[in-house]
Amino acid sequence: MKKIFLLIMICIISTLKLNAQFQMSLDNASNYGGSWVNGNNNGFGFGAWSISTGANTGIFIGNPSTDGMSTTDIGTSAFGLYSTWDGYVTAQRTFDASMKVGDIFTFYWVLNWDANTGAKGFDLRSGATTVFNVNNGGSSTISGSNGDIDTGYGTNTMTVTFERTSSSQYSFSMTKRSDGSTYSTTINSSDAVDRIHIYIGNQNDGAGNRNIYFNGFQITSSSATADLSAYKGFRLLASPASTTASDLLTELWTQGQTTGGNVTNGSSNVWQWDNTAAGRDSSVNWLAITDIGNTTLSGASGILVYDYDDDDFSGSQDNAVTSLSVSGSEKSAPDVVSLNTNADGYSLVGNPFASSISWDQITKSNINATAKVWNPTANDVGSWVDITGTDKIAPFQGFMVQTTAAEAASVTIGTSAKSTGATFYAKQALVNEIKFDLSSGDSFKKSIRLQINDESSNTKDRYDSERFAPMAINYLDAYFAVEDMAFSINSIPSLETQVSIPLHVEFTQSGTVTMNAANFNLPSGYSATLVDHQTGEEMTIDAGFTYQFEHVFANKSIAKSPEDVLKAAKTLGVTTNNRFSVVIGPMTTSVKELSELPNSVKLNQNYPNPFNPSTQISFELPQTMTVKLAVYDVMGREIATLLNGAAKAGVNQVNWNASNVGSGMYYYRLVAGDVSITKKMTLVK
Questions:
Q1: Terminal CA-to-CA distance of the chain, rounded, Å?
Q2: Which of the residue ranges 7-21, 157-171, 436-450 would you say has the lowest mean pLDDT?
């Protein structure tokens, strides 16, 4: 049977049929610091506010008691809307996901005087279709789509509860402002409500008593759902409820299990990451689980599962949507996760909530500034994506983190990390970076980043992100090859002179590959050039940079089992046969006027320093000269001659590979005319 190999780092979500409810969305006016404007998107689980104001209307954060209304439940800081004459104001909030069966939407609202000659209230909508309306006009009556809700005046807070009870029905209840009793009704509709639309207008009265207030928007659910859709292959899962791996994977085929699986024979298709391993090799750190019935998924733990494309062994691919179900209670927060204590060791962590979390709101100790997720939906084969800054991690998304030092490391995921929306590619452009996007057709895509960061060092640090090899047979991959390491994000400090950074492209197909600069933000006075060593072309990199090249793949891919794919995938992978280099740094004579040539001989500090095993040495000349550049040990013995001959005016660069010498301090000396300059450098192996 044909197998498609993909890895999806999502955490154990699935049609989670839970006894307790999950908090999917939450927002309060207290999150806004007293100011509420169009486009605000605080809280989590909702889209940004879409607000439209007419003449003599507006919105504000205020205290309902100021206008003679109750603050019970709704609080002293609520979302307020006003209309003092004939204009209308509307405020709309979409949900991150349409309501499904078992979802409950609740909120508070309050009003005092009637709407005079206008109207005020709210709609519960599915797109542009109103599923249920609540409205107050020029009398005490508050009416709903199914009839009058309350006919008396009052200032009590009204609590709205709206539940999707079946695929074709909702229940609606609201406490009355007049006496606090509850009105209830049933709504027959198969439309999936996905937003609330609030309005007030044409009040023809400047009195604040005609204002309306809302607060405490919340969606809870008895289920949290992961749509595995047609993307088969590897999936990283972790659960928002404590359960066994067997319960989670009931809907998937599992094999090689002593308990809890479909069959006991065959190789296991469920793994866990060895969070104690000192090595960083993903080909050996995935450990097969053979007893999923007794494997508990607690906290932010995760597992790796291979989802076969032939679920029922019919001999043909099954593309039906797959969902998973578990029972339990949503995990409590904060969730403190102890990580690998080995320097540069990796750990698998998962989003423990049924809502998105923001990477920058996770408390971190001694871990890298970048996390990694596998995005199976990016293209037909999937791709590793780096998560940085304010990037979001989707509900039940699994992610890899790296320890920065050989000491205690942890992440703490509290409810404050909950956020709105999550997408793998919605990344903010950093101030100083080049983001390279590579693609071939619609099926193969990869992004890598080269960043200038004054907090970075010349050696590996927490701002670099190591390359993870794709867990797929066919893929397009790229990385920066620095010494013996491969980086999908290479962060370097500010430069005094230009350096050349090797860029390697791996592609398991033959065809045209397009490379462009999706983000281009370099420090003032910097330039960047892509060098294609195969064709000899040199292209200036700028905001409009695009380069196409032909790639020839000589090896023929063969079908592999899931375990073979894992064994073939390496965390690190560096080759010396790099087709490309990125030359980056302050502008050189190729882009400066001749009047800006150095007026004297200058020898720059090598980069990187310390280094292993190679480093770059640059020097500047006011004119073409005969020079000698050599390396000496601490005894003064010359061990390498790097250049002995003519060198051009401007900046010159030479590379020294120290693979054949031992660790220690070395000196390099430039002799140009009657000028001799010596500097020292350190080799650490």
A1: 48
A2: 7-21
Q: What amino acid is encoded at 267 in this protein?
A: S
Higher pLDDT among residues 279 and 478, named by residue: 478
Residue 524 burial class via C-beta count within 10 angstroms: exposed 0-12, middle 13-18, buried 19 and up: exposed
pTM of the model as a whole: 0.71
Of 181 and 407, which is predicted with more confidence? 181
What contacts 241, CB < 8 A, 6 or more positions away? 16, 18, 326, 327, 328, 329, 330, 331
601 near 675, Cβ under 8 Å?
Answer: yes
Structure tokens at 126: 């599915």
CATH superfamily of 596-683: Macroglobulin (MG2) domain (2.60.40.1930)
Among 424, 423, 433, residue whose Cα is nearest residue 519: 433
CA distance linking residue 658 with residue 126, whole number of Å:
66
Residue 596 Cα distances to 12, 527, 648, angstroms: 60, 15, 15
The tens digit of pLDDT for each residue in 79-98 reads: 999 999 989 999 999 998 89
Dihedral through CA 262, CA 268, CA 270, CA 271, nearest 10?
Answer: 160
Nearest-Å Rg of the Cα atoms of the chain is 31
For residue 523, say if its preceding peptide bond is cis, omega within 30 degrees of 0.
no
Task: Tell me phi and psi for residue 508, to 5 degrees.
Answer: -90, 20
Q: Is the pLDDT of residue 120 over 60?
A: yes
User: Quick one: three-class SS letters along 514-541?
Assistant: EEEEEEEECCCCEEEEEEECCCCCEEEC
Buried b (16+ CB within 10 A) or exposed e, 118-131: bbbbbbbbbeeebb
Residue 600 binned pLDDT confidence (cut-offs 50, 70, 90): confident
| Closest C-alpha among 307, 89, 327 to residue 210 | 89
Q: What is the mean pLDDT of residues 464-474?
A: 83
643-652 burial, b at 16+ Cβ within 10 Å, e below that, comes to beeebeebbb
- Burial (CB < 10 A; 0-12, 13-18, 19+), residue 165, is middle
**Which pair of tokens denotes residue 525?**
């006075």
Flag whether pLDDT at 313 surpasses 70. no
Q: Which amino acid makes up residue 605?
A: Q
The domain spans of the chain are: 33-224, 228-417, 433-585, 596-683
Q: CATH code for 33-224?
A: 2.60.120.200
> What CA–CA distance (Å, rounded) separates 172 from 186?
6
Q: What is the DSSP string of 278-306?
A: SS--HHHHEEE-S-GGG-EE-TT--EEEE
